[in-house]
Amino acid sequence: LIEAAQARLGDAFRALAADSLKANNQQFIDLARAQFETLQQAARGDLEKRQLGIQELVTPVRESLERVQTRIAEIEKDRAGAYGQLLAQVEALANGQQALTRETVNLVGALRRPSVRGRWGELQLKRVVELAGMVDHVDFVEQLATEGGELRPDLVVRLPGGKCLVVDAKAPLEAYLQSLELADEAQRAQKLADHARQIRDHIARLSLKAYWEQFENTPDFVVLFIPGEAFYSAALEQDPSLIEAGVARKVILATPTTLIALLRTVVYAWRQEALADNARRIADLGKDLYERLQVMGGHFGSMGGSLRRAVEAYNAAVGSLESRVLPAARRFRELDVGHAAKEIETLAPVESAPREPQAEELRTGAPLPGAAAPDSERH
Fold this sequence. Notes:
Blueprint: H1 2-111, H2 114-131, E1 140-142, E2 155-159, E3 163-168, H3 174-179, H4 185-209, H5 211-214, E4 222-225, H6 229-238, H7 242-248, E5 251-254, H8 256-334
Parallel strand pairs: 3-4, 4-5
Antiparallel strand pairs: 1-2, 2-3
């Protein structure tokens, strides 16, 4: 009985424990579900708020990115167009460079011919003269040749006072032009040295021509025109004594810049000469005007004397009329003859006299200070 009671009691406790555990589990599950649902709803509301906040933050960024993307597309489009234009310009520049190279080669080839090189130097010289303000065939003469045709300076500049300045433009440039085509530095230096030597030899030949002995009123030197600063500087780099050598042989080296300065000085001298000539002409005109005024003063004096004599003659006639003619005429009135009843008007003498010239220059016969008496032709 005890064992049976224990077994039934154990079964009862187990059943009660199982029921109690089941009830507790169910309550726990219900409570947990209720809490979870509450937490889930709260989390869902908080998540929606967070999504809205994130969306508000992300929207401006998305719009900015869209604008940036649009701008990048436009920039890429512009870059493609600019790249195409740049490519076209580079191609045009390359073509121009090739054309320039060809023209340079042609120019160098042309300048190698002495006649072309001489003509180019003459054109450069003419351009320099025009820039300096000289007038063709007035202040300078191109290609003047002496009798026999041996001496042919390229330019003869007329200086004030009947003087002239000789300019020669036949500087040798062949060695310098050849040096431009060489890539080797040693060969180029050799050609530049030849260029300096050719300039020195030309100075010697030009000095032997002695232009200053062939033209009158010419300074005892000649100007050697080098038609480019590069030619001049290259020669001086190789031979710095060229200037001293030229001065010693009465040959002055001149580039376009220095020749323009020299000719500008000549232009200024011509202007000063014109001003001095105008001053001399003004002085002569003033002297002539002064003499004419003196002659005119003599005429006025003569006219005043004539007026004075006319007044005296008039007053004498009035006196004679009043003293001799009118008394006899009044007797007709006393005799009651004709229209003698009308009184004869009494004439008054002229008391005013012409004014004598007071200025010494206007007096008749007054000498002109510092000048001879006027000629009869000026009267």
